[in-house]
Amino acid sequence: MNLDDLAGRLERAADQIGPVTERRIRAVGAAGVARIRQNASGRPGPNVITGQYRASWRAVAERIPHGAECTIGTNAPQGRRLEFGFWDMTDSIGRHFFQPPFPHVQPALGFIEDTLHEQMRAAVRELFE
Q: Which of 68, 85, 70, 75 shows the shortest CA–CA distance to 19?
């Protein structure tokens, strides 16, 4: 490959890096939400009662200059309590609570990281094919 070919390939890659990265990041977010929902489908994660908590998980991907970012999360109030539990809590009317943690997010983090690396490698291959 000569330098003129390389320059052309780099220019084409620079024009496409934003859309390609955004598409790949959206795939990571979708896979991450799916894994968290899977982990929140019974022990060792939380049990499913109505399915509303599990369905509340979302991935929000946004384009940023020359790339994208994704946030995975839930607005459900029980999210932190289910993930981390709480120890020796007494509410305002004197009821005593103990809930062990039912981790479902932390076990998904390695999978999400591996998926992110895989998608970024695929993006580089796509940009330079």
A: 68
